[in-house]
Design brief:
By secondary structure, the chain is an alpha+beta fold. It has a single domain (5-127), classed as Gcn5-related N-acetyltransferase (GNAT) (Aminopeptidase). It is built from four helices and seven strands; from the N terminus they run βααβββαβαββ. The protein has helices at 11-17, 23-31, 70-83, 100-103; strands at 5-7, 36-40, 45-54, 57-67, 88-93, 110-115, 121-127. A seven-stranded mixed beta sheet has the order 1-2-3-4-5-7-6, with helices on both faces. The longest helix has 14 residues, at 70-83.
């Protein structure tokens, strides 16, 4: 199983996360301590996560991910969400087909919502058990 390692924001991370979009916003969130930057797959995968409170519970939000090895890190991400005390994991994507290989490793994942008229955003959730 591939683990997650917390890392500090750096120029290389900013460059690697650029395809995920909104990289300046990601940088602000991580530097302010509102989000955490993780490395996995020997630095080939970077993941930015946050915790959000909703209706009395907490949600582990995958804010951005870029690189290779997301499928290999699926269990580690789930375990990190569980250790944070979150009751659900949530992520948004414009490209669900690109995540099909990873999604199969999260039994119980479901499409929570879709948004957008011209560019459809898919919102997935998973109960943390």
């Amino acid at each position: 199983m591939e683990g997650l390692t917390p890392i500090k924001w750096n120029k290389a991370a900013k460059q690697q996360l650029r395809p995920a979009g909104a990289v300046n916003s990601l940088e602000r969130e991580v530097l302010a301590g509102r989000a955490q930057l993780w490395s996995a797959n020997n630095g080939q995968l970077l993941v930015v996560t946050g915790i959000e409170v909703y209706q009395g519970g907490t949600e582990f939000v995958i804010i951005a991910a870029a690189g290779r090895g997301l499928r290999r890190s699926a269990t580690a991400i789930h375990n990190q969400a569980k250790s944070s005390g979150a009751s659900t994991i949530r992520f948004h994507t414009f490209h669900p087909k690109r995540l099909a290989n990873t999604i199969q490793y999260w039994p119980g994942i479901y499409l929570f919502d879709t948004r957008g008229l011209f560019r459809k955003e898919y919102i997935f959730k998973l109960e943390v058990v």
